[in-house]
Amino acid sequence: MKEGLQLEIVEKLLNDVSIPKMFKVRQRFVAPEIKDVPAEVRTAIEQANVLSRIKSGDKVAIAVGSRGVADLPIITREVVRSVKRVGGEPFIVPAMGSHGGATDEGQAEVLAQLGVNEETVEAPIRSSMEVVEVGRLENGLPIYTDKLAYEADKIIIINRIKPHTAFRGKVESGLMKMVTIGLGKQKGAEAAHKYSFKHMDEHVPQMAKIVIEKTPVIFGLATIENAFDRPAKIVAIPAEEFESKEPELLLEAKERMPRIMVDDIDVLVIDEIGKDISGDGMDPNITGRYATPYASGGPDVRRIVVLGLTEKTHGNANGIGHADFTTKKVFEEIKWEKGYANALTSTVVEVVKLPMFLSTAELAVKAGIKTCNTLTPDKVKIVRIANTLDIKEIWMSECLYNFAKEHPDLEIVSEPTEMTFH
Q1: Distance of alpha carbon 64 from alpha carbon 44, whole angstroms
Q2: CA–CA distance, 333 with 339 (Å, rounded to integer)
Q3: Hey, CA dihedral for 261, 267, 271, 273, is it positive or negative?
Q4: For residue 288, how many C-alpha atoms fall within 13 Å in the half-sphere facing its CB?
Q5: What tens digit of pLDDT does each residue of 285-315 get?
Q6: Rounded to whole angstroms, what are the CA distances from 378 to 22, 142, 282, 397, 398?
Q7: pTM to 2 decimals?
Q8: Strand runs labelled E in 204-261
Q9: How far apart are CA 294 and CA 199, in angstroms?
């Protein structure tokens, strides 16, 4: 059967599906924000009294990850300047596991895309995938760390603390995970994921403790972001206190997380996904759609429709497997090898599976509506967001108008109008 005839059959099946009008709402969150980030970084480091651990002439590796941490270049630059003030010689190492295609150049490129380069942070970038084995768990799992960092006199970790997308534990995404998986490069990430996310809550702290014992990690600079992905808190933690302090910060980070204030959604339309948005392309903590059974939370969503990839993800569609429908344009933009590298390392393959793709964004949305099993079309609860990082203003279908009007944390900012597609 020719492609044109196939498309004609699909379009015919969706012809009678109507898309309800949508209205825009503003979600209100309690969102404290640090106004002077450079000053807060300096204050945090001074209060922790950790610079005394650096001797003049020490080579200091500063580990920076692949996530879009708010003000990352500024935060990194201030750590660099603090190290220089006490006579240390700082350099930046990528701490991102297998990201960036698991290559030296790819990881340096990821940092550059995040605004972290030699000019902005005032320190050289040294990227290598070479690792050193520093120990093993009792079950035989090897523990690796970046060779350049291992050979430095001191190591500093910079990372945001937040809920993970695939497991729950006392520590999730933060300093200890970066010590084990980020600094472990591809081999370390592969080892940490070997027994799946089921045991990650045990393995991450155990592996991190060994890395801290065997390497010169002196402190970590942790950030917590508010609901609008702006810095809400910055704290420096001595390495020996990671295990005791990070769980408290994780609980605080969970309280600051944004959410979609509709618990029951028939169709969630997401304009774009990407690795710069979330490790899973779209944050499961926002969508309620997880790749493993070891994490939960978020709304009950029956169908997810993805309309595009971010420019900064460069074809990495990791997370597209969470969607039920997407577009032919997205399919043609996917660089399969990038997502496959992540999936093979993490052992989570669901995230790179391909959903049904339609020839246009409109048809993809109609497919979501047709298959969401709502008997009355005018009652279909649709929510549309730009991406899972940007949910301050979202769109809702007309049947949710009274719900939004009565909700104390929602403000209606437009009248219902036809859904548009770019």
Answers
A1: 18
A2: 12
A3: positive
A4: 17
A5: 999 999 999 999 999 999 999 999 999 888 9
A6: 11, 56, 27, 9, 8
A7: 0.87
A8: 217-225, 231-238
A9: 9
Gap between the Cα atoms of 180 and 323, Å rounded: 30
Non-local CB neighbours of 405 within 8 Å, separated by 6+ positions: 412
Side by side, the strands of the sheet bearing 300-306 are: 356-358, 325-327, 300-306, 264-270, 382-385, 393-397, 22-27, 410-412
Q: Which amino acid is at 196?
A: S
Instruction: Say if residues 318 and 281 touch (Cβ distance below 8 Å).
Output: yes
Mean pLDDT for the stretch of residues 4-33: 88
Q: CA–CA separation, 220 vs 400, rounded Å?
A: 44
Please give the full DSSP string across 95-150, using - where no structure is assigned.
Answer: --TTTGGGSHHHHHHHHHHTT-SHHHHSS-B-----EEEEEE-TT--EEEEEHHHH
At 222, the amino acid letter reads A
Q: For residue range 182-196, list pLDDT tens digits in order.
A: 999 989 888 888 888
Tokens at residue 28, please? Answer: 């209100």
Residue 185, both tokens: 């490069």
Structure tokens at 369: 């509506």
One-letter amino acid at 90 equals P
Amino acid at 63: A
- The CA dihedral of 199, 203, 205, 206, to the nearest 10 degrees, is 140
Question: What SS3 class is residue 390?
Answer: coil
Phi and psi at 374, nearest 5°, equal -95, 125
Query: Which residue matches tokens 């980020």?
Result: 182
Tokens coding 284: 């499961």
Nearest to 308 by CA among 338, 277, 270, 279: 270
Q: Which two tokens stand for residue 159?
A: 């990372």
